[in-house]
Amino acid sequence: MWVLRFEHFAKAVAEAYNTAQQKLLCYLTLLLDVDCYLDYIFAAGKMASKSKSKAQTDLVRHWELSPIGRRILREGRQFSTVRRIVVAARKVFAQKGLAGARMDEIARVAGVNKALPYYYFRDKEELHRFVLETMIAQISGQMESPVVRAMEPRERVRALVNLTFDFVMRNPAYPRLIQREMMATRRPLHWMVVAHHRPLHQRAVKTIREGIARGQFRAVDPDQMVFTIFGMIMYYFATGQLASQIWNRDIWNPKNVEQRRVAVLDFLEHGLFLRAGSKA
Q: Which three-class secondary structure state does DSSP give residue 273?
């Protein structure tokens, strides 16, 4: 089997040369140097293994920020299976909300036995909370990083905008998850407001006040400005298909998202930031 794969590899590399003579010479050289190919395969496999290991390490770090995640890691659950269930749960919860989602459907989407979600999570509510906790923990951790906190207020606000855009692009289900919970009849997301959203809002407000005090920002209402900044970003993604039809283009297309990012930063440049020598 590996001989056939090697032959395909040699032909592919040879195609990079211009003349037929060069192609033939390269192809024959590679065929005679099997050790070179085996070294290549070993190196490629090692790189893929490192990449997979880093991705798993990142996920574990995010899970450790959640009490539920710490319990799962402590109990030594099958990591890959739990990950599949969580990824499937994001999709199902985003489509149907907590009330409409069913654990057996999540199991079906994950491609696991329908009893397994209950083996890893006590109930649907705990799985739902874990999905949201791990997503919010990512953005909260990045916004609270020493690098961001050491920035000047102007650069810190730009970083908050860029981090939020990057976070939503990595977690496209998040806007719909939050939107569905806000429409729920029960008291929605109280635990997340207390643990994450309120502290995040307060830190952003502190940044705005700090910028005003240093003469970097206009004398705006800090609370209103924070709602405006995050509203300009989240509304774009939350409107989903409606926005795509209004604009007649895919709002999730990276090129369109980048245009939106530039527009938000441009608004802040003229609506919040003060230029040197100007007055609030």
A: strand
Q: How far apart are CA 79 and CA 60, in angstroms?
A: 9
Q: Could you give the CA distance from residue 134 to residue 70 in angstroms, rounded to a whole number?
A: 11
What is the distance between the alpha carbons of residues 45 and 43, in angstroms, rounded to a whole number? Answer: 5
pLDDT tens, position by position, 95-106: 888 888 999 999
Q: How far is CA 8 from CA 4, 19, 25, 27, 37, in A?
A: 6, 19, 15, 10, 11
Among 57-66, 156-165, 166-175, 237-246, the range with the most confident prediction by mean pLDDT is 156-165
Give CA–CA dist 234/176, Å, rounded.
Answer: 10
What's the domain count of the chain? 3
Domain containing residue 74? 64-137
State the burial class of residue 192 (Cβ atoms within 10 Å of its Cβ: 0-12, 13-18, 19+): middle
* Helix 124-143 vs helix 79-100: crossing angle, to nearest 10: 110
> For the chain, first and last CA: distance in Å?
72
Residues 121 and 164 in one domain: no
